[in-house]
Design brief:
Length: 45
Amino acid sequence: MPFGFGRKAFPVNINSIELYRSKYVCFLIFILLLGRRLFHRYFFA
């Protein structure tokens, strides 16, 4: 994670990192659920 956006944009950068991390966690959970469904469909049909 690059922090070189200047000292004024440091809180904005922290907020963007928090937002990105929450989006990434939601996306990862979605991929895990979808992948598990596809895995059961193809390997336990």
